[in-house]
Write a structure and sequence with these properties.
The protein has about 100 residues and is of the alpha/beta class. About 35% of the residues lie in helices and about 15% in strands. β1, α2 and β2 form a beta-alpha-beta unit.
């Protein structure tokens, strides 16, 4: 996901915002958080949300109306499935959810 965010820095359409949720059991386990936080300081279009309590899927679903967004979901198979399910239940069309298809099996 970090690579996708860095790619967006060069290619995203003007005005498009990126919201990245990063989940881990505790703050110390957030993958490359210091680099992401540094990137977030210099990119006003990037919103970062660390999730270390509860389910990542619940945090994403409760954070807004995602029906008009494009979602990219990455991580362990169970987490990908639960985030994807929450987004679909919230009205985001399946065609607007990107994830590793092999993880959905």
């Amino acid at each position: 996901m970090k690579a996708i965010v860095e790619q967006q820095a060069a290619q995203r359409p003007r005005g498009r915002r990126v919201h990245l949720f990063v989940g881990a059991r505790d703050r110390g386990d957030l993958y490359d958080w210091s680099a992401l936080a540094e990137l977030g300081l210099h990119k006003p279009w990037l919103a970062l949300t660390p999730v270390t309590a509860g389910r990542l899927a619940d945090a994403v679903a409760g954070a807004g109306d995602w029906r008009e967004h494009l979602a990219c979901v990455s991580g362990p198979a169970g987490m990908v499935a639960s985030v994807r399910s929450e987004l679909l239940a919230a009205g985001l069309p399946l065609a607007q959810v990107r994830y590793d298809q092999a993880l959905a099996r």
